[in-house]
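Tutorial, part two.
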Amino acid sequence: LSARAHAQSVLDAPITVNFSARNTDFHFDQRVAAHTVLARTQWLLGFPEQAVWHAREAAERALAIGHMLSFIYALATGCAPVAFWVGDWQEARRYTQLLERRAEEYSLFFWQAFGAEYRLLLERREGSAATLDPLVDPFTRMHLRDTLCSIDGGLADDSMLERGESGAAAWCAPEFLRIKGERLAGRGAVEAAEALYRKGLALAGEHQA
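Running the prediction step on this input gives:
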């Protein structure tokens, strides 16, 4: 809830009224960033329709002010993951293709990695890809893999699931606990699975997610 409140405060009272983030000290337009954060938090709080709305607002705002880096950011961290989470695979594919095209056009290698990995999710759904592509940059790899594994639990290896138990993957820790619980239940370890489910439920309750 605090993330939602902070993002909403940016929309209500932005630090700058400049129409382009290129004229500020920020990499991304503040309103685009705020809508993107709200898209993610509204999904976690259980409001998928609002999550989709904020994701689209972020992209439309970025296009309206002509700031391509903000548009790519909105696609990579808001529009595409929200589309995957709500199960709109057609929109997920459209956003992924847009992201790949724009990131390549502007030689933004950091964001190209996001597009490539989202495409992998689509390929896995079609049965034509099995594992994550290696990402060179450690920050990119960990930041993105949390999101990818929250979409497709089959991508979560033991190290990723351990992040859920240790609390290192704070925002998606309950989901990682659920995934690990399912795997234990599948092997007949019912009591251990139930313990993880309960821990995940308690943590989600703390997050009000």
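The mean pLDDT is 87. In part three we will examine how such features are distributed along the chain.
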